[in-house]
Specification:
There is one protein chain. The protein contains seven helices and no strands. The chain is an all-alpha fold and about 170 residues long. It starts with a helix and ends with a helix. It binds fe (ii) ion (FE2) (2 copies).
Length: about 170
């Protein structure tokens, strides 16, 4: 009896977060639109300080975004039977982006090849986002699969908030 009571308490505490959070796909698409806007702003400014600020925002957002996908959505997609080839390709694209993100974070506006690195990162992300969002892409397959996108969205939102808080504490 005691076990049952514990379980129902656990479930109750989960409900509010679930109701407030966007579904997994909406949350990730919103992130995609946000970084796209920042990449566009980066392209249209000549100010070094603005470029530094935008690059910092982009790199942080992408680190958190790729991490919540890798920790929560991608494993769920693999478990739901989405093609291994598609998931492997996404992993490799994340790894490529992370290498460039580290190089961008280690430099700043005015450094040799720094602008080009941000531009190429933008192109890599554009390609990767297309693979996730296009017809027949990963997100479409996730919607067709037997996945609880609300539950995954709530989990990702909570993890995202936690990671953002950690990064603010570090700065
Ligand atoms: Fe994504
Ligand atoms: Fe991704």
């Amino acid at each position: 009896m005691a076990v049952t009571e514990t379980r129902s308490t656990t479930r109750k505490t989960k409900t509010p977060a679930r109701a407030a959070a966007p579904d997994a796909i909406k949350l990730l698409k919103d992130d995609h639109r946000q970084v796209e806007a920042w990449f566009d702003e980066f392209e249209s400014t000549n100010s070094g300080s603005k470029k530094n600020k935008l690059a910092t925002q982009i790199c942080l957002a992408l680190r958190v975004h790729t991490q919540i996908e890798e920790e929560i959505l991608y494993p769920a997609c693999r478990e739901a039977g989405i093609e291994e080839d598609m998931m492997d390709e996404a992993d490799v694209e994340h790894d490529g982006a992370k290498k460039l993100i580290a190089e961008i974070e280690a430099g700043s506006a005015g450094d040799d090849h720094w602008d080009a690195k941000v531009k190429v990162l933008g192109e890599m992300i554009k390609h990767h986002v297309k693979e996730e969002e296009q017809r027949g892409g990963m997100f479409a397959k996730a919607k067709q699969a037997d996945l609880d996108l609300n539950e995954l969205g709530a989990e990702m939102k909570a993890r995202k908030d936690e990671l953002m808080k950690q990064s603010k504490r570090r700065n």
